[in-house]
Design brief:
This protein is α+β, with helices and mostly antiparallel strands. The protein contains seven helices and 20 strands. Strands 15-20-16-17-18-19 form a six-stranded antiparallel sheet.
């Protein structure tokens, strides 16, 4: 097997290279840096029957090829072999969740669950163990495992989101045409411009009423404010960021500063502790009402934009 073929095979095993590194030129795949993630042994051949020497956790090596599930690595001119599962990429690869994604402490669904990521959440892939990717959060302080089938590229998430936005635009245009012909009914109108989507949104939210609040949320069993927004928007293919502050400052979505301009589905952003930063998000459902995962109420419920919330409203984001 040629060096390039061996390297491509290794990258497929380690990182699903076709999915996550398709934009890289072949020359960029000649070698890369990885760190040993646990104190272990390296071997003279790709087998535990070979001569071995123990190496410390954190040692940085150069990966130059593969043989089966073994990586060929070098350190200060010495070449050896190590199982792929003991390597973490130095330069992490960014991937995105293709659907609601459970994260486990170990590379198994029988392991304890650390939480669930909503669709479109960015994760940082550092390694692979069997059919699971080893991922980290942005700071690298948390490491967990997700099934490889749950991850996709940014291009696919963007394409899905753009397709959703285009379908929304078509429906809005159709609604405007219908309105211009005088075919609208009397009474309160659906301010979202898409009755079917608004109906689905409201139905989904109502199905979550009473779900308990939990700081370390595990949807759909429990929620905090930003996880509720993430979960609900994810059901409609809309990627959201992970925290209330990040959602509030997400410039991908139009900022709405006036309460009178709100539409069904807008993400309300509040500064509850009056420190100048948004720390609570909720979903507007029309009629001066919104749905939130409330720490004070201890559950997901419907609330009013009364004087207290009006005083703490900063702006909304329109996905």
């Amino acid at each position: 097997m040629s060096k390039m073929k061996a390297l491509k095979r290794f990258l497929t095993v380690l990182m699903a290279a076709v999915l996550l590194m398709s934009a890289c030129a072949p020359a960029a795949l000649a070698s890369f840096q990885a760190k040993i993630n646990s104190s272990t042994k390296v071997y003279s051949v790709p087998s535990t029957s070979g001569r071995s020497v123990r190496v410390p956790k954190g040692l940085t090596v150069t990966v130059s090829g593969a043989s089966g599930s073994w990586a060929r690595v070098s350190y200060k001119g010495v070449t050896a072999y190590i199982p792929v599962s003991y390597l973490n990429l130095v330069n992490r690869l960014t991937a995105y969740t293709a659907k609601s994604t459970p994260v486990y402490k170990q590379a198994s669904s029988s392991s304890s669950r650390m939480g669930t990521l909503s669709i479109g959440t960015a994760v940082y892939v550092v390694g692979k163990s069997g059919s699971y990717y080893r991922i980290q959060n942005s700071s690298g302080s948390v490491t967990g495992y997700v099934n490889s089938s749950y991850l996709t590229s940014k291009a696919k998430i963007t394409a899905a989101y753009n397709a959703y936005k285009n379908s929304q635009k078509d429906k809005e245009d159709a609604s405007e045409n219908e309105s211009s012909t005088g075919s609208t009914t009397s009474g309160e109108t659906d301010s979202s411009g898409d009755g079917s989507t608004s109906s689905s949104l409201l139905s989904l939210l109502k199905s979550l009423y009473g779900k308990p609040y939990a700081e370390s949320a595990n949807p759909p069993s429990s929620f905090n404010c930003s996880v509720l927004v993430n979960y609900v928007m994810g059901k409609f293919g809309i990627p959201m960021k992970g925290t209330a502050a990040a959602q509030a400052n997400d410039s991908r979505y139009t900022k709405i500063t006036s309460l009178s301009d709100l539409k069904v589905g807008d993400i309300l952003c509040f500064d509850t502790d009056e420190d100048g930063n948004c720390d609570h998000t909720a979903i507007y459902i029309g009629g001066n009402k919104f749905v939130e995962a409330s720490q004070n109420a201890g559950k997901v419920h419907e609330n009013d934009l009364d004087s207290w919330y009006k005083a703490h409203f900063k702006w909304a984001r329109r996905p």
